[in-house]
Amino acid sequence: MPVNETTTEAIRVMTICNACRYCEGHCAVFPAMERQTEFTQNNIEFLSNLCHQCGACYQHCQYADPHEFNVNVPAVFEQARLESYTQFLWPAFMQPAVLNGSKFMVTSLLVSISLFLVAVAGQSGVSQILAPQVNFYNLMPHSVMASIFSFSAVVVVISWWMTLRGYWHSISLPSPWSIGMASYSAAIASALTLKNLDGGHGSGCYESGESPSLWKRRYHHLVLIGFFMCFSATLAGTFYHYGLNIAAPYSWLTPPKILGVTGGIMLLVGCTGLFRIKQTTDQRLVSNDNGYGMSLTVLLFLTSLTGLGLPIAKGTGALGLLLAVHLGCVLALFLNFAWGKFTHGFFRLIALVADEHQKTQ
Ligand code: SF4
Ligand code: SF4
């Protein structure tokens, strides 16, 4: 199969790295590179998703610009990852969502917020949107919200299954059942600890220059933990509603509120930190992704901000409007889960499983 420009460049760079091998202690990419008998589109799709973009190999490379070899692993691998997210995306007609990340995010936000404004107005009347409210469910019944997001969740899971199935087969992984539990647990441990963001020596990433920093990893952890706390808050709220027959809003010292508020604050801090890092990142390490990379961070930030605003707006005329905006942000986030940056975590996890599995062969 003919390879494209990005893969050709990635193969050129990997061929130089494989001869040099100076960076083999930096991350999982270089030992995995040394195990390959040749470089093809398939193993570039594997190696590029194993790269966590820490920047260490670029800052330490004696063959980087201005050397004529012009080796830049993080930049070419970022482009290769973007192409793998596009290539395997299901359904294929959603591929422009990856190629135009900012536009897809803004459009999905505007459409989702408009839909919820219309739904709230249709349910409770236009005048009620700006009338002081205490209870969300006067504006939109719980059953309507649950139906919209349950349907969206099913679409997301089907999309993940189809997309990741294509990637799994492409990087030549065998059946999931034939891979040992040890490979899965090592990959999950590596993903959760973000091992490959430590620069290979525990000092962290070099995204802003020659001085390593652990902040990129810390902010990612805040976002990851905050996200799981908010997800747990939703599960706890569902249990209160259906299991205990207690309807929202819940008081501040209940599990749904404690988990939601703590997770929301962690997401705000983590996302703000990632914005800051994005602004200060050495531009030679990145390729133009048309806003795809930051779209998830923006949506997580807006969802947390509007979600934390809801209890504050309770009893005021702002609640209806804020509820529609918050639900619109959540729906846009669901669209990002299926067709946006969110899937990068799964691609990386599968690459880590492949790496651990290859070590056992
Ligand atoms: S990035 Fe540079 S220093 Fe590191 S292995 Fe490749 S060629 Fe060698
Ligand atoms: S940027 Fe970091 S994670 Fe990516 S290949 Fe280089 S050292 Fe490894």
What does this protein look like?
The structure is a single chain. The model has no long low-confidence stretch (mean pLDDT 93). The protein starts with a helix and ends with a helix. It folds into two domains: 5-88, no CATH class; 94-360, no CATH class. With 361 residues, the protein is mostly helical. It is 67% helix and 0% strand. The protein is elongated and about 70 Å long. The chain has helices at 5-20, 29-35, 41-50, 56-59, 73-88, 96-99, 101-124, 126-129, 142-170, 181-193, 215-243, 255-280, 292-313, 319-339, 344-360. It has 15 helices and no strands. Bound molecules: iron/sulfur cluster (SF4) (2 copies). One iron/sulfur cluster binds at residues 23, 26-27, 29, 51-57, 73-74, 196.
Q: Would you tell me the structural class of the helices and strands?
A: mainly alpha
Helix content: 55-70%
Number of discrete helical segments? 15
Number of strands: 0
Gyration radius, rounded: 22 Å
What kind of sheet is the major sheet?
Answer: none
What is the succession of H and E elements?
HHHHHHHHHHHHHHH
Ligand inventory reads: iron/sulfur cluster
Task: Kindly report the average pLDDT value.
Answer: 93
Question: How far from one another are the termini?
Answer: 26 Å
Shape: elongated
How big a fraction of the residues is strand?
Answer: under 5%
Low-confidence blocks of residues: none
Total number of domains: 2
